[in-house]
Amino acid sequence: MAEGGGLLNRCTGKLVPWVRIPFPPPALLFISVHNHSSHWLNSLFPGIYVAAFYSGLFIAVRHPPRYGVVLNVVLREMAMPKADKILNAVTIRNLTKPGRYSDGRGLYLVVAPAGTKKWVLRIVVNRVRRDFGLGSAMSVPLAEVRERADEYRRMIRQGLDPKEEKEKRLAASQMPAFREAALSVHNENKPTWKNAKHGQQWLNTLRDYAFPDLGDTAVDKIDGPAVHGVLLKIWLAKPETARRVRQRIGTVLDWCHAKGYRPHALDMRGLSRGLPKQPKKSNHHAALPYDDVPEFIAALRAMDHIGVSVRLAFEFLILTAGRSGEVREARWSEIDLDERLWTIPAQRMKMDRKHVVPLSDRAVEVLDGAAKLRRKNDADELVFKGRKPGRPLSDMTLTMLLRRTKVEATAHGFRSSFRDWAAEQTSFPREVCEAALAHAVENKVEGAYRRTDFLAKRRDLMQAWARHCSPETEANVVELS
Q: Are 252 and 209 in contact (CB under 8 A)?
């Protein structure tokens, strides 16, 4: 009903003004107009304009006290039969002729030539007439389909598109929770983990710090404030862990965006700016001064209470300037004693690039000692065995060795000892020293053109380092290259 100006005809979209009748009619009179002409009504009430908009228009005339009579026009479409609902279970079962059979208000039973029957709601959405399927007549009974049709009509009155709402509900029912999404990301990335331990650590950090708050939350409901709350709890107390959790939450949500579960990715950089500034802390590994390395190796060889395999592994780590994981997981198939080379495959290297380590005389002696501990002549056997058969030494084994000797250093820190020694006590070029540590070339252009790995020069470098580390040497004098 139009405000102050009359009634809005929903068929034509035109405004019908109120009509005042100049003489009192009966107190209440209903007149049904069954055709498009209203001349007889005009003759009954001279001087007024009345229009019949559609077959079945009902006109109600009232006599309000003290005011002129207002002609209230109520539009009601009567194109369908007068009964709103004309189908019943028996009728539906007996209908076999192909065609559309109306149940009123746009709800139809459609019988196909093959004899199948389905429900269709024909209704106008955003000024466009559309048909919505409401299911098979064999599986959806008449009472239920009428309820569905009423639900669709309610949605349309609210300005919603029933099809879009159905798709949203379907997507919501299939929306994974954060825990489920994280497990999917973890499984998809399993082939890329450098080792099983790293993959497990990736999942453990989320389990410990993210799952308690976000684990059961649908991924499309996770916003910046939710992630901010998770990180804030550990941001200052555990800075390094917090940064890893942030990165891994971002990875999971990016995956969700790529899969279509989220309309957009979460701005992790902007979120980080809303967190407190973390205290600065050196990320360098504690290292032993290179002058103290010979004394440490001498003490290492004398540690009878430490397993032989552990002692040999630690000395080999120092002599090759290798990383802990590269040494602990070394296999005999990687060792070429004839060429005196240790070739580490790309999948075990930090930079995903094969690294060839020239072996010094002392490094070969260490391998000879490890060979005496071999249980079988298997090329895939570990060079340095752990306590359990087929399992490498744990990283904690090397750490505990340093703690027991009260050495303020880490296993990784001996790489720094080697680098400091090479820089201060030799004249080997910087590129050779960096290649010995398997460091990437910082200059991308230079790296693109460099094809050599300086193997010959690195062989001399590693031999000189072994002479420095050997306690039997009378004087730690290093021959300059």
A: no
> Is-contact 413 282, C-beta < 8 A?
no
pLDDT in tens, 129-166: 989 888 899 889 999 999 989 998 988 898 888 888 77
DSSP 27: S
**Cα 39 to the center of its chain, rounded Å:** 71
What are the residues whose beta carbons fall under 8 Å from the beta carbon of 353, sequence distance 6 or more? 346, 438
pLDDT band at 317, cuts 50/70/90? very high
Burial grade of 456 (CB within 10 A; 0-12, 13-18, 19 or more): exposed
**Dihedral pair phi/psi, residue 420, rounded to 5°:** -65, -45
Distance CA 336, CA 338 (A): 6
What angle (nearest 5°) sits at the alpha carbon of residue 46, between those of residues 45 and 52?
Answer: 60
**Chain segment 81-121, per-residue pLDDT in tens:** 444 458 888 989 889 899 999 988 899 999 999 889 999 99
The DSSP result for 379-397, as a single string, is TTSBSSB-SSTT-BPPHHH
Gyration radius of the chain's alpha carbons: 42
Question: With contact defined as beta carbons under 8 Å apart, do 92 and 137 qualify?
Answer: yes
What is the arrangement of strands in the sheet containing 107-111, beginning at the earlier edge strand? Answer: 99-104, 107-111, 117-125, 128-136
In this prediction, residue 390 has a pLDDT band, given cuts at 50, 70 and 90, of: confident
Give the residue, 198 or 75, on which the prediction is more confident.
198
